[in-house]
Amino acid sequence: MGADDPRDLLARSSLLNAVSDSGLDALGSVQRAVTGKANADAEARAVRQEADQKERAAVQAGIEADRAYRAAVADEAAAQRHSAELLDRKQALDTEFAEAQQALAVLEGQRRDYTTWQARKQAEQAAAQAGPPASSPAGPRPAPVRTQSSAGVVAPTSGVITSTYGPRWGVIHYGLDIANSIGTPIVSVSDGVVISSGPASGFGLWVRVRHDTGIVTVYGHINESLVSVGQRVSAGQQIATMGNRGQSTGPHLHLEVQKNGSKIDPLFWLRANGVYL
Fold this sequence. Notes:
The protein is an alpha+beta fold. The protein contains 2 helices and 13 strands.
C-alpha cells in the first residue's frame, strides 16, 4: 500500500486528532494548576498581610500599654512623695505648735510667778515695817497645805522659777528650778513610793519617787531628806527641805520628771496635770 493510500491517510488523521485532544487536555490541566497556585498564593499573601497587620497592632498596643503603666507608676510615686512631704510638713507644724504652746505656758507661768513674788515681797516689806511678830517656839517650818488638781497632782514647793527645761549654758537643762530660802518645804507631787533618798552626784542630796502612774520625779539640791527608800508617800506629803547642796548656784529645788525612762519638761507636765506654779 502506497504512502498516498487513502486508508493510511485516514489512520494518520485519526492519530493526529487523538494526539491533539490529549495535548489540549494536558495543557488545560497545566493552566488550571497554574491558576489554582496563583489563587492560593494570593490568598496566602492576603492571610500573611492580615497576620502582619494584627501583629503590628498587637506590638503597638503593647507599647502603649507599657507606656500607660509606666506613666501610672510615675504618677503613683509622685503622689506618694507629695503625701510624704505633706506628712513631714504636718509633723513639723505640729512640733512648732507644741513648742509654741510650751513656750506660752512657760511665759504665763513666769508672769504669774513674778506677780506672786512681787506680792510676797510687798507683804514682807509691809510686815517688816510693822515690826517683828510675837515670839513663837522654834521648830521646823510646816509644809503648806496644797490643793490637788483633778489629776491628783500638787505643786512640789513654793518659790520663783529661775530656770526651765531646755538649752542652758551650752547644755540641756533637764529640770525646773524653783528658788526659795533654805528649809522651804518640798512635797511629793502625787502618790507613790520613794526609790532613792540620800547622796547624789551633782545634786548633793536628792529624793526620787516612783508614782502610781509610772512617772518618776526627782527632787535635787535638797537640804534634808525626810523619807526613806520604800516608804509610800501621798500627794502633798513633805519629803524634803529646800537646800543649796551639790553643784548649785543658790537655794532652790531642781525638779525632774521622767516618763518611760525619758526626761520630759516638768513645767509642761505640771501644766498638763492642772498645776500652775
